[in-house]
Design brief:
Blueprint lengths: L2 E7 L3 E2 L2 E2 L6 H14 L4 E6 L2 H13 L3 E6 L6 H20 L4 E7 L1 H4 L9 H10 L4 H6 L1 H17 L5 E5 L14 E4 L10 H7 L7 E6 L18 E2 L6 E2 L7 H17 L4 E4 L25 E3 L5 E3 L1 H10 L2
Parallel strand pairs: 1-4, 1-12, 4-5, 5-6, 6-7, 8-9, 9-12
Antiparallel strand pairs: 2-3, 10-11, 13-14
Helix pairs in contact: 1-2, 2-3, 3-7, 9-10
Length: about 325
């Protein structure tokens, strides 16, 4: 692959807090150096809901020599609220690009799940639960999604291209059936799970039919035995109804399983001609490790590093697997 990447969260406001409460530019500089020098990445997808944080992380990524995929990713905004944020991010991304950085602008991601108005649900967790539950009403709801998503994306791309002169894409989920005509990359969040394991390779291969370079904007799994079968819904083992958060059952840590999943998918992407791929994610800031297994939220994290209670970082097996793969 040309682009060897990892996802990096700068923080998104959700209904019960931020996906990353603490954001220190010094920590970001350290992380980008780790991503470039130890993980041997050539690209980083910087995501989050705050344009200022995104700009800081993007600048540090560029300083570390990384290609920057500038990816605003707010949560639970309406289309009307999202558009001006994308426009501001386009201006910030353009300023960085004019300084000489390699920048790709990602006009949001998985809007049907993370924005309001494309599917029923007051917050992203309820919309994810709706899709994961596969109730009898779901097919009809999903049939209405592509028209709504594509109408918004057409408006968004037209707006950001007046402010940003580089390449533009969008991070899609398959059922959104994005019209890729106005974009420079076909980009998909591609999680292999039990339900699509037999067809996963064909799904990746089919992305090439649009005649544009293919990027995998997310792929990954959590750190417990059986997480590979759950793919993008693996984090739903956290019980958020209690304080402090805890796991909703007994789970066994399986760092080697997470690393094996990583190696398997990278092999598929290489063999199927993917241009760029981003492991989700460098660190799961809302899911710290705890010595008591009931509270070890790191099991529900997709992160390459474990975060301890003191916020120190500890590479997991997947970290070393990615570094080895990207250094080859």
């Amino acid at each position: 692959m040309r682009g060897k990447g990892v996802h990096y969260d700068t923080g998104t406001a959700v209904s019960d807090g931020w996906s990353r409460e603490t954001f220190d530019p010094v920590d970001v500089r350290r992380d980008m150096r780790i991503i470039a020098r130890e993980l041997h990445c050539t690209a980083v997808r910087v995501t989050g809901g705050d344009p200022g944080r995104l700009a800081v992380a993007a600048e540090e990524a560029a300083a570390a020599g990384l290609e920057v995929w500038f990816s605003p990713f707010p949560c639970d905004l309406t289309a009307g609220e999202l558009l001006p944020l994308l426009e501001e991010c386009a201006e910030r991304a353009e300023a960085l690009r004019r300084e000489g950085a390699e920048v790709v602008l990602v006009t949001g991601g998985e809007l049907s799940l993370f924005a309001r108005g494309f599917l029923p649900g007051d917050d992203f967790l309820s919309r994810i639960a709706l899709v994961a539950g596969r109730g009898p009403e779901l097919p009809g709801l999903l049939r209405a999604v592509p028209e709504r998503v594509n109408a918004f994306l057409a408006e968004a791309v037209a707006a950001v291209r007046t402010r940003f002169g580089g390449k533009v894409t969008y991070a899609a989920v398959p059922f959104e059936r994005v019209d890729w005509t106005p974009f420079d990359y076909v980009a998909a969040d591609a999680y292999r799970a039990a339900g699509n394991a037999a067809t996963f390779r064909e799904e990746i291969r089919a992305l090439h039919r649009h005649g544009r370079p293919v990027a995998i904007t997310e792929f990954g799994c959590c750190t417990y035995r059986g997480a590979a079968d759950r793919g993008g819904t693996g984090f739903l083992i956290v019980d958020r109804t209690q304080e402090p958060w805890r796991l909703n059952g007994r789970y066994e840590r399986d760092e080697q399983g997470q690393a094996a999943y990583l190696r398997d998918l990278l092999r598929v992407f290489d063999e199927e001609g993917v241009d760029t791929a981003f492991w989700y994610t460098f660190a799961g800031y809302r899911y710290p490790h705890h010595p008591d297994p009931r509270y070890d939220l790191d099991l529900a994290s997709y992160g390459l590093v474990r975060i301890d209670q003191d916020l120190s970082l500890h590479p997991k097996a997947a970290f070393h697997a990615l570094a080895t793969a990207y250094d080859s």
